[in-house]
Amino acid sequence: MINIDLGQLAAGYGATNQPQSSFDCVADIFIKRFDPRLMTFFAWGQGDDLCERVWSNNPEKYPVPFGKKMGPTKWGQTVLREQTPWFGKDEAAMEDAFPDHKLIKSVGCSSCLSAPVVANGQSVGAVSILHAQGTYTASDLHDVTQLTALLVAPLLLRKLG
Fold first, then answer.
1. Distance between CA 128 and CA 54 in Å, rounded?
2. Domains (range + CATH), the chain
3. 3-state secondary structure at position 76
4. Where are the alpha helices (DSSP H) in 46-100?
5. For the chain, is the Cβ count within 10 Å smaller at the N or the C terminus?
6. pLDDT digits (tens, 9 = 90+) for 99-133
């Protein structure tokens, strides 16, 4: 069971510094559930190859905003185009999925949970939650997928801003 403080969420969504306050509020929920070493939120324009990192818990090594060409990758095909959650269970999977896998490894991450953020039938972004190998299992994808709904509002607010 995922516990969400709806008052905190409403305050984050209602704050004037959008979409940052919403991203921060949703990130707190993900962090409480997954305790990631690295977590990033991406925005994605339908059909575009470039994802834009819009939130990071490690802005020193993973700055925001930052464009990352993920659309043409296997990860992009699975997560963004097919709207299917992805579990990278080990270093081999990470190397196959991410062009910056060496940087990911340098922050102690060798596994990843990723899920699309879907609105009106279209992928508008994605979340990636990373940690050491063995920290997460494929069954964790269920919670990630449910929580991505909380990112719809901030990603759409970003487009409005």
1. 12
2. 35-144 (3.30.450.40)
3. helix
4. 74-75, 91-97
5. N
6. 888 999 999 999 999 999 999 999 999 999 999 99
